[in-house]
Amino acid sequence: MGCLLVAVSFTSLFGGCLPCKILGSDSPVVQTTGYCISAVVFCSGWSCTQISHLSMVNGVTLNPTSRVACVSCRNAFTMIASLILYVIAFFVFKKQTSSSQVDIKNQYQSMAYISIFIGAVFVIIFQLGTKEPSLKQESNGKRATASWTYWLKKVLYYQVLSIYVSTRVVTNVSQTFLAVYVMNDLRMSPSSKALIPAIIYLSSFVASVLLQELKWSGERLKAFFSAGGLLWLFCGAAVIFLPINMHAFIYVLSILIGIGNALMMVTAIGMESELVDKDLDGSAFVYGSLGFIDKVLCGVFLYFLESYESADPVPCDPTYPCFSVTRFSLGFIPGISALIGVVVAFFIRFHTPNPKTLTQPFLA
């Protein structure tokens, strides 16, 4: 259902205002209303897809190591999907003959339709080829159902919430401001705004693949998350103080950012699995509530940061870092969020001290 809503809303967003066609009016009010409705439907569908897919991880296996392996595989193939989109964009924009509004619109429509088609193919493969194993029930033949009040009374819920939200702030804010930072603050070529994200996705993919074969426990989740957070803290500081004449260093930072993103994202979702543990009936509430709070807070952050952002580069001495809202947003906000996550992770106590091995490797 979520995938269907995503496909329909995505088609409406890039294919033109659907309510405008139905009502036969292109007034600003109708256009704004139409696109807002499409955006709401898209976000609703994406939430359904994301929450149900994450919840399946806990339903597939009770082994903590296997759960983290599933999450790392999921993150790795998310990076592959992003890289595929960049390849599609490369070939679509390569055929660009003019910069007219009509041509640009057609290019983005082509990207949207190709993406929807590829996504639909893999959704069909997933639906037909995935069999969910039946887990052993409790000794009395029934499985206890954890209500939402059960989770709100747990300190661990709020600790994992803080870690997950801080991780999403790091990834979402950095992705939003990266291209503007590269163009306006570092004065790099237009191709860099595509190359640098591609490096980040590629290094994140490699890190995710390596993570999925490790033995995992609660303590290792904390350790690897802290490593990723401290790595992002270093990258954030480097972003703030990087001058224009040393812009080539951003390529090294891109590799470190990709590794940091993978370490934080995989372990943060792994901590969600640790929180759910065997209370499988509450997994959707945990993933859904944390995802909802994450989206609200990230939206508030981005609203205030982008409201002060300038579209034009600020005058700057190439030998010294110059302050801008973009530089502050890309360096300081993710860095502080990563530091908060590391501090919270230090005080978390999980119930799986001994790591368990995988019965067979996922990517062998």
UniProtKB/TrEMBL annotation:
Family, as annotated: Belongs to the major facilitator superfamily. Phosphate:H(+) symporter (TC 2.A.1.9) family.
Full protein name: Major facilitator superfamily domain-containing protein 12-like isoform X3
Keyword Transferase: no
UniProt cross-references to Pfam families, sorted A to Z: MFS_2 (PF13347)
Transmembrane residue ranges: 68-91, 111-129, 156-182, 194-211, 223-242, 248-272, 284-305, 325-348
Iron is among the record's keywords: no
Segment forming the signal sequence: 1-19
Gene: LOC107001762
Top-level taxonomic group: Eukaryota
Species: Solanum pennellii
Keywords for the protein's UniProt record, in alphabetical order: Membrane, Signal, Transmembrane, Transmembrane helix
